[in-house]
Structures are given as C-alpha cells and as structure tokens.
Amino acid sequence: MGLDHHRWKALAVASVTTAATLLGVSVASATSRSMFKPPFDFSIRDSRQPPAPGGPRPYTATGLNAAWSVIAWNIPGGDLPSFQRSKKGADTIFVSHAAEASVTVEQQPDGQARYSLSQDGAALPCNTSEGRPRESDLFAHPNEAQNKFETNAHLAKTGSVKINNLASLISVATLSYSARLSVPHRECPVAQGAAVIALILRDPVDRQTLFYQVELSQACGLQPDPRAARCEHLAKVPRPNFFARTAPFGIDDPLPLHGQPFLSNRETKKLSIDLLPRMKAAIAAGPEGMSRDPSHWTVTGYYNGQIIFGGLRMETTWANVSLIAVDKKQD
C-alpha cells in the first residue's frame, strides 16, 4: 500500500473524529467514513467550454497521481499557466498565476496541504458575448479519473452512497476568506460573489443531476441600485435559490440556514456542517419536473471554491477538507 496510503488514511480518521465531535455524532454508534482522500497533490484541468470529449483534461500537476484538481471556468485568458515550484522553509509551494485567477498549493512535510484560490474581477468582462452577466468560477474537487497526472480520490464507488441511508453527511474545512472591490473600481450590471462548498447528486432512476451548493459568504460589489439592494438584503435575510430549475438542477443554500452565520471578510473559521437535513429539504421542495424521492438520490461528487460576477476580488484558503458520511444504525 505504501506510505501515501497510510498518510491519507490517518488524516481521514482524524477528520472523521473531529467532525463527529463538533456535531455531537457518536462515531462508536454509527459507521462513519471519509468520502475521499485528503487534498495534497493537485492537477489543473482544461477550462474550455464545451469541454473536450471525455471531460476537461489535466495538463499540469504538483506531482504524479494527483488526487485533486482545480478548474477555472469562464476566464477570458484561457487555461491557467502550469504550476511553478518553489520552497518556503520546509514547505513546498506550487503557484499557477494569471491576471484573472490564481492557485497556490502549500504542501507540508507531515503530508498535509492547504490551497488558496484567488480571482480578480478587474480582468473579467462584466457580461458574456450574449449580454448576460458573466459568472467566473474557481473550484477544487477530488478526482475520479485515472491518467498520467491523476489518481482516483473517491473512497466509495460512484453512486453507492444513497442519501436515504445516511444519518449525517458532514462537510469539514478550515476556511480563510476575504473579498473586496477590484482595482480599478467599476460598476457591472451584476457584481457579487460567494465562497461555496457543493455536492453533486445523481438520481439514476429518473436520470437527473442536482448541484447542491452551500454559500459560505455573501460579497456585494458596485452594481445598479436595485441589484445592490437585493445583494445587501440577501446578506441580511438569506434564502435558498434554485438557480437552475430544469435539468441539470441547481440550488444555492446559504450557510445561515444551516444555523451558522456567513463568514465575515478576512475571517478564518473551522466549518463543520451537516448537509443532510437541508439537502433533503431542497429535494422535497424541488421545482416541477425534479425528482422529489430522497431514496433515488446518491452522492456522486464534491467541490469547493468561489464564484464571482463583476468587479470583485476574492480569495479563499482551504485546509483540513473532508466529507464524512455517517450511516444510519442498523437495527
């Protein structure tokens, strides 16, 4: 199995114990397991849209057998540059920097790593070529592929984790967050952003997909008064929003509705969120045409990162990231 196997196994056990303690879940009374290997080595994937056949392909990595990937959607300069390696004391640093977006991975000698994602709206157009507000995403996710850059990070067979069989589904991360206006300042029709964690759910019976995103923050930029008022209102009175009401479906579910406040600017916070109750509520309240039977839905993916529209500058740093599935007790 090798040292890498023992390293990620030890970190996964620690994550399970920490998450269970924070949420009051008894590990001894239920089966708890990590859904994927902890992040350490990362690839970067092609961000062209539509993706090449077979999905976005990796073209650079911090090391062989990267279990995690980063992808930057809708940046005008094309793909991010290849990683550049340097040293900072005992840590190894990898950086991919472009005007629109940057990725930094800091690997520690003990086998742990943290990663930073940064976006600058000053280099992004306000709108798409069709005149719609332009969304720019920068996401990290565990890999499922097996190729010359990547290895499979998922520890459960795709589609085997049914949400109806779970007592809890706990997302854990230590997150540092900051957001401010880009320089130079400018007004766009829409200017807002959020740090997010998300699950990809699949219903194989009805052949549907649901992107379940938890907004961890709410940043408002320079935009027309009606949009500015709406953004500020949602920061104070958050509500869920189905941003895609036809397949594939998608919902933004703000962190305060999970019983925790939005992250403040320049705040670092240890997050432990049981996603299951509100995820089931989202399925039950789904739009017309979406499957509302929780026994159909399975967990097939996870990602975290950030989303911006307009002239914002945002940075998030992630550490101790894990997703813990706690099975229902068997009678």
Helix content: 10-25%
> So what's the overall shape?
globular
* SS summary, helix count: 3
> Mean pLDDT, rounded to whole units?
91
Q: Report Rg.
A: 19 Å
The biggest sheet amounts to:
10 strands, mixed
Q: Runs with pLDDT <50, length 5+?
A: 1-14, 17-23
Q: Report, as a whole number of angstroms, the end-to-end distance.
A: 34 Å
Instruction: Report the count of strand segments.
Output: 18
What class do helices, strands and sheet pairing give? mainly beta
- How big a fraction of the residues is strand? 35-45%
Write down the secondary-structure element order: HEEEEEEEEEEEEEHEEEHEE
Explained architecture:
The structure is a single chain. With 331 residues, this protein is mostly beta strands. Helix content is 13%, strand content 41%. The protein is built from three helices and 18 strands. It has helices at 2-23, 225-236, 276-284, and strands spanning 32-34, 42-45, 58-61, 68-73, 84-88, 91-97, 101-107, 113-120, 135-142, 166-181, 192-203, 208-215, 219-220, 241-244, 249-254, 267-274, 298-309, 312-327. The strands form two sheets. Strands 2, 3, 4, 9, 11, 12, 13, 14, 15 and 17 form a ten-stranded mixed sheet that branches. The model is unreliable at 1-14 and 17-23 (pLDDT under 50).
Layout: helices, strands, pairs:
Layout (H helix, E strand, L loop, with lengths): L1 H22 L8 E3 L7 E4 L12 E4 L6 E6 L10 E5 L2 E7 L3 E7 L5 E8 L14 E8 L23 E16 L10 E12 L4 E8 L3 E2 L4 H12 L4 E4 L4 E6 L12 E8 L1 H9 L13 E12 L2 E16 L4
Annotation keywords:
331 residues, mainly beta, ten-stranded mixed beta sheet, eight-stranded antiparallel beta sheet, 13% helix, globular
